[in-house]
């Protein structure tokens, strides 16, 4: 509302929230919302989507040579080579997600996240960086060994978790206070997977 009152368009990157956290895209009130379909929907890499508020169409020039009507969103999203193999999986992915239910899916991955976070947040030697406040947390949580934001150290930690403990994580960089490791439980993970992570972090924190 503050942006719109000043004539500023609002663009939302919803790559990690759509299909993960229950919310209504139109309810955001944003002019443009980009979504990703492989992170939480199970569609192959390279497939995503774009929401454009109807009043936002005039803010984007149609692609040169585009024949779609000027009142259609696809006149503003002209792309070249399309991954048809990926696109035709979207209906199946949506059917699966609808069968599971977004509220149920979120409850499941949040439960898995809480299993390991609540066991390690107060563990000496581990800094859990993601807050607990509702609205600021989902399934994704980042941590680092206490005070160690070094890039190479966190990459080495990811390798150790994978090679020694069989746990896949991702090193993330670009944070103001240094690098970290991101853990993202998926729908198919089971509680013992997260218990194994707790054991691994307990071992590493003691080294």
Would you kindly provide a written description of the structure presented here, covering whatever features stand out?
It is a single chain. By secondary structure, the chain is α+β, with helices and mostly antiparallel strands. It has helices at residues 2-5, 84-87, 90-100, 102-120, 151-165, 191-205, and strands at 11-13, 32-36, 48-52, 126-128, 141-145, 170-172, 180-183. It contains 6 helices and 7 strands; from the N terminus they run αβββαααββαββα. Strands 4-5-7-6 form a 4-stranded antiparallel beta sheet. Strands 1-2-3 form a 3-stranded mixed beta sheet, with no helix packed on it. The longest helix has 19 residues, at 102-120. It is elongated. The termini are far apart.
Task: Provide key terms for this protein.
207 residues; alpha+beta; Aspartate Aminotransferase, domain 2; Aspartate Aminotransferase, domain 1; 2 domains; four-stranded antiparallel sheet; three-stranded mixed sheet; 6 helices
CATH architecture of the largest domain: Alpha-Beta Complex
Report how far the terminal alpha carbons are from each other.
Answer: 50 Å
Strand order of the largest sheet: 4-5-7-6
Shape: elongated
The biggest sheet amounts to:
4 strands, antiparallel
Into which percentage range does the β-strand content fall?
Answer: 5-15%
Brief digest:
The protein is of the alpha+beta class and 207 residues long. The chain has 6 helices and 7 strands, in the order αβββαααββαββα. The mean pLDDT is 90.
């Amino acid at each position: 509302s503050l942006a719109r009152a000043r004539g500023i368009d609002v663009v939302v990157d919803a790559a990690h929230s759509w299909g993960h956290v229950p919310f209504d895209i139109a309810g955001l009130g944003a002019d443009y919302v980009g979504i990703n379909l492989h992170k939480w929907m199970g569609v192959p890499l390279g497939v995503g989507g774009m929401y454009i508020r109807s009043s936002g169409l005039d803010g984007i020039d149609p692609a040169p040579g585009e024949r779609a009507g000027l009142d259609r969103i696809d006149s503003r999203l002209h792309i070249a080579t399309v991954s048809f193999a990926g696109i035709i999986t979207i209906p199946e992915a949506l059917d699966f997600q609808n069968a599971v239910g977004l509220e149920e899916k979120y409850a499941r991955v949040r439960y898995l996240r809480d299993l390991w976070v609540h066991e390690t947040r107060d563990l000496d030697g581990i800094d859990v960086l993601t807050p607990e406040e509702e609205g600021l947390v989902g399934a994704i949580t980042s941590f680092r060994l206490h005070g160690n934001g070094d890039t190479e150290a966190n990459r080495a930690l990811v390798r150790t978790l994978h090679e020694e403990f069989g746990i896949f994580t991702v090193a993330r960089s670009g944070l103001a206070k240094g690098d970290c490791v991101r853990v993202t439980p998926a729908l198919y993970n089971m509680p013992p997977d997260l218990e194994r992570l707790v054991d691994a972090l307990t071992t590493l924190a003691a080294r």
